[in-house]
Amino acid sequence: MITRPVKYAWQHIRYVPLWSMLTVSRWRSFGTRSAALGRAVGGVMRWFPIARRRMNRDLKQVFPDMSRHERNCLRRQMGRNMGQTLFEIYHNAEFHTRLDRFHVSGPGLEAIEAAQAAGKGAIIVSGHFGQWEAVRASLKARGIEVGAVYRRQSNRHYQRRLLAGIEAGGLPIMETGRVGTKTLVRHLRAGGVVAILLDEKHPDGTRLPFLDRPALTSLAAAQLALKYDLPMVPAYGTRVGDGSDFAVDYEEPIGHSDAVAMTQAFNDSLSARIRAHPDQWYWLLNRWQDA
C-alpha cells in the first residue's frame, strides 16, 4: 500500500518539470512562454516510450497508411500543441485578453445568442482539440459567460493550477459526478450556457463509432438538450498559422431527434476535424480502451 506522504511526494516530483518550465520563463512574453512549453512537451512526446507506444497504437488503427516518419512528426507536433494549450489554460485570464487572436465564425454563434436573448440556456459540445478554451473566451468577449464541466486531476498540484485556470475562463465550473450534474442542471434551467468536452471515455456510456471505431460515449449532453429544449452546438478553436491564432468555428446546432443520433452527429463532427488536423487532437485519452 502506498502511504499518503509517499503519494504526495511522488505527485510533487511529477509536477517539478512543469513548475520549472513555467517559473524559468515567467518574465518573457506570453507568446514566447507558450511556444517554449510547447517545444518542451513536443520533445517529450517525440521520444518518451510510453507516450510513443500509446499514440502509435491508435494512429495505426485510424490512419493505417501513415508512415513511421509521419507518426513521429505528428506526435511531436501534437505535443507542441498540447504544451501551448496547457500553458494557455494555466494563464487563462491573460489568454482572454488576446482577443485579436480569435477569428470567430459559424451559424452556431447566432443560435447561442438567440437562445440567450430568449432567456434560454445552451450546450456547447467540443473535444480536446485545438484550444477548446478559445470557444469560451470568444463568447465571454461578447458578454456571454460560459460554465464548464471538468474531470478532477489525481495530482493535487495539477488540480490546483488547472481548476484556477478553468475558473478564470468562466463560471460555474462543475466537476463530473452527481453533485456537478445537479449544479449543471440548475445552471441550464436558469438560462446559463455550458461547455462540455465529449471525447473522453465514459464508463457508463454507449458504444458509438468515433473515428470509425466503437467508443464509450456519454449521452448526457444530448439528453439535457432534449429535456430542456436547448441548442446543442459543436464548436472548435482550431490553431492556425504559427499556433497562436485561432479559428473559432460554431457549427450549425445539432438537430433534435434522439440522444443517440445527436451524440453520433457530434462524434462525426469531431472525427472530421481530427482527420483534417490530426495533430490538434489529444491522442492520449485512451478513447477506445475497454470499448
Automatic annotation (TrEMBL):
<dbReference type="InterPro" id="IPR004960">
    <property type="entry name" value="LipA_acyltrans"/>
</dbReference>
<dbReference type="GO" id="GO:0005886">
    <property type="term" value="C:plasma membrane"/>
</dbReference>
<dbReference type="Pfam" id="PF03279">
    <property type="entry name" value="Lip_A_acyltrans"/>
</dbReference>
<keyword id="KW-1003">Cell membrane</keyword>
<keyword id="KW-0472">Membrane</keyword>
<protein>
    <submittedName>
        <fullName>Acyltransferase</fullName>
    </submittedName>
</protein>
<dbReference type="GO" id="GO:0009247">
    <property type="term" value="P:glycolipid biosynthetic process"/>
</dbReference>
<keyword id="KW-0012">Acyltransferase</keyword>
<dbReference type="GO" id="GO:0016746">
    <property type="term" value="F:acyltransferase activity"/>
</dbReference>
<keyword id="KW-0808">Transferase</keyword>
<keyword id="KW-0997">Cell inner membrane</keyword>
